């Protein structure tokens, strides 16, 4: 049963029993999140509706099945699919078994074919540390020698200093908000809440923030391509020792993930996937787990929560005191705990559904893990109440504060990098302070192979101006009615940005402007010619370096003519340059094969 069906079953049962109105009234009287979740926990207990944990062990049979699939595609020279199937074979093989070693051997063959020589050598080295089929020894020794010869012919790509310069702060960093430029400050008013404004003038193309998340959550579609902990895109990935749903780029990432959250969630991963929990729901759960493991004991977490909540609506909102300084940093739970929930704007049905999911998670943690264990019954009860409240808290903070991580990809082997592929989600406490505009003045990107988010000025930003991000509703793409509807549904507000107030048109309804100076028109035609646009779409790094500064200048000059087609074109060209600098996904490394463990 998937989680949505379980929720519907609870509603139907309570309705048929004539209890739904009474329970809704009781839920409305609950004064905090823990009361809401514990109420639903008792209701689901009485209904006997809690799902059982599913167990999907690693087996030789399953590993062999996927290895043979890999062999099939390898013989057809479809190396990208073969690589994925060998990764699944590795994931599903019992630890240190012959199946495990054979999957490594086969993967090394496809890595060699893809000229991933370093990754191939790592696979071969790991193979020889394991119990392995003797008949493969000579073949792998020869393959390693060929890789070493191949590496001599391949020049390692070095970071271009011009790109490094673009992706670097031109100002000092903020003393309190450590990921932000010193040109930014956080202010508060009743209308906008906490928000970010410019302390100085900021030019187009300037980097204004670079932030690491509390943690990233890799999407299931990307499990076979990335390290589940740091999002590295290297091909020598090693599996979780216990579950079939996580690969890591090295032992350090595997150990860190285990310590921070995976030790708790590992035995439940198969259940979560088979029940189709959403990324938002799983993100909330992992946030709660990491909040606890960040502290040596439950009392440490209670103290952090107490201090964080005492600082809400003060200048130290979300901050922690390190030495004699108050700082705001995503790596500290206080910054995540105090993000906006919009609880007062949520419907009763929305809170009810999130409380049901939280109760399900609470039961899994209680029945199938030692996460809630404490020295005494009283201490365990206190921990259970705390976790109940946190699960619902983050079920509400996550939808409006989580940021998607994506990259441009040549998904369809066209040679163009225009398809945006979602890779992961993460919580960035500082970027969550940025309000929305349908005509934003910054744009953010994530460095491919990392969870580092970087924001750049997309429009000139005058001193005292608010910094605006875009939550997915842009005036150039959607009309006002559609944008307002989307923003009200997910983010619970009516947008009053300049594009909404002044009725800015969509790009498709724009026409070339007749008001522009001839010099600007000629410059735009020169630096965004058809040939240059094609090169940018094909990911040509040299072209991107050549035109980036020119496009920044054009955006500065065109700002006073906004909204206009020419400004939109230059902004899109600028974004394409930045996506090239941050990293593109080549063909074959973005679209996942279909694979399941529950069929065995």
TrEMBL record:
Top-level taxonomic group: Eukaryota
CDD domains for the chain: SET_SMYD4
Ranges where the SET domain occurs: 182-472
Pfam family, one: SET
GO MF, one example: S-adenosylmethionine-dependent methyltransferase activity
Domain MYND-type residue range list: 227-266
Secreted is among the record's keywords: no
InterPro entries: SET_dom, SET_dom_sf, SMYD4_SET, TPR-like_helical_dom_sf, Znf_MYND
Protein name as catalogued: Protein-lysine N-methyltransferase SMYD4
Keyword Chaperone among UniProt keywords: no
